Each structure stands twice: as C-alpha cells, then as structure tokens.
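Hi R.,

Here's the chain you asked about this morning:
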Amino acid sequence: MATTQFGLNHPLTVKVWGKKLFRAALAETYINRFMGKSKGSLIYVKDELSKGPGDRIRCGLRVQMSGDGIAGDNTLEGNEEALTTYTDDVLINQLRHAWRSDGRVSEQRVPFDLRDEGMDALKDWWADRLDTIFFNHIAGETGAAANTHDGHNTPTAPTSAAGNTRILYGAGSTSTTASFTATSSNSGSIRQVNFQLPVIDKAVNQAKIASPLIRPLRVEGKDKYVMFLHPNQVRQLRTNAAAGTVNWFDIQRARIEGGERENPIYNGALGEYNGVILHEANRLPALSTDTNVKRAVFCGAQAALFATGRDNSDAEMRWVEELFDYENQLGIGAGMIFGMKKTVFNSVDFSTIVILSHSPNPA
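And the predicted structure, written out as tokens:
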C-alpha cells in the first residue's frame, strides 16, 4: 500500500510550519495591532527587500516648503526654492533560535506532537523578542544587547537639542535628566515629578508645534496619538484623585461612554485622553541610571520601521528540522531576516516623545 509522508525538511513541511510560526508569533506580540503597510501606521512595515538583494531600506522625508513665494508680476525665475529631504536607513540581518528534544525516551513519556511543542516554544520566544526590540528603540534604551535585542539597528537616546527636544518630564518638572534624577530622591519634590495627566497635554502640544510636526494616526476618521505607559505610571494615574482635575475615573467614564471600537489600535487600551489612546506596556525599560525613573512614550504615525528580507517574502520564517545523536534527538530551529528601529530624520526623532517620571515600585 502506498503512503504519502512529509519527513524532516520536506519543502512543504518547511513552508507550512514556517508560515504557521510567523503568523502565530506575530499574533502573540503586543505590537501587532500597531503594524501596517500604510504611512499612517504607528509601525511602518517595509518589504522592499523581500523580493531582492540588499541589507538596508532607505526611507525619505521631504520637509514642507517654507519660502514666501512671489506676488504679482515680480520675477519668479531665479527665486525658486530647493526641496529639502532627509533619509533614514533600517538595516536587516538574521536572528535565529532553536529547540532540541532530550531524546526518544523523553518523547515517549509525553502525549504531544514535537512539531507543535517546538512551534509553541519558538512562537513565545519570538513574540517576546519582537516586543522587546520595539520598546527598546522607541524608549531610547541605548543599553540594549547588540544584534539580539536591538533589531540589528543601534537604539539612540531621545533627541534633546533645543527646539527639537523629544524628552518631557513628570508634572511640574522641567529638569534635565541629571537634575531630575537627583531631585527625585527628595521626598519633598517627588509629587512634582510623578506621572499625571497634564504631562499628556504637554506632549500633545509639543507634537503639534514640533518641526517637523509629529503627524497623528488616522483612526476611524479622526486624528489620534498613542502613548505607552509603564505599569508604575499607570498606578500613579489610577491613584491620583486631586480635586478640580481630570483624573483616572474621568478617563474610564469616557471609555465606557465611547462604546466598543472596531479598530485594533483600541484593543487592550486603558482609555483615551485628549486624543491620545493610552496603553500599558510592561516591557518599557526603566531608566538605567535610576530604576525609580520610568519612561512613557508618546507616538504618532511612522514612529518605528519594521523591514523583512527575502527569506520572509511570503510571511514565513525559515524553519529547519534536524536529527542529532544517531537520530535520537529532534531539533527545530527558526530564523528571520529582519530589522526594526524608531524613525530618525536629520538627527531628530521623527514621531516619538519620551516622558520621564518618578514612578518607583510600590512599597
């Protein structure tokens, strides 16, 4: 009797399981709801290198013209304005991880399929890694481990140049990072640098007057921003009930009155305030110089870039199965050629603002 089998590394096996892993891992990530191929997405997905060679994708930004123009019959020729453009590159490289069984006796003891178990293990690992890379970049975590936690692109600290600053501080503080950290240990000033709603207003205002301005996302026909908050900052918002101010309870009432939203960007949202959709994100890194200082990140459109290489052109990871030790152990490996980074044009963070606050762990 003839039978049909798909053994180790059969082309169809590789393709089927590679697609399964890619989709399952991406579905499990926190960031999937923010990814898209349109320029209005928070994480702009670029796939130009999935169809050809190369190790980087170059993205361009054209700055709006600023000239006065020529009135009446005055001569226009010779008074034209040159276009100003800037570029940002996202590099791609390979990242792999693998799983191996203990051996045939161990496999005999368990009632599950090794391919399924291997995919679940790698899916969880990839989901965690992609989320970590994203938050390392948008938070400006310059201490991220090279190649494995930086998405093959070196994270850069938030822009701090005068006129283009992308750093804000907790309510009532205009400190530099150094003085902010120093004053945060003073019990008399902690109340002035924790996370409160007025700093969200400040971020919205900064986004609107920035040059170039931080473009909002278009959500259900309206302009919106997204802010990711550390859990400690969320706790401060929940417990702030100062008289005469908008507080957490007002946010929740507005969320309930708004009803269920169809757009995935609202999935899991804490609520919305001043056109900013608030999300809690436990992978936001603490400030390395003072772990009591936490970072929130305000984002507009194209805050980050995600690019894939040729091996992942059909939304699949590279899937490899091998037998070791005289076919006693099965190993499963999966890899992806990709890159991720926040967008930076002309040495200025394009669509992110980092907010530092004194938000220590609860006692």
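Residues 114-139 form the longest helix (26 residues).

Let me know if you need anything else.
M.
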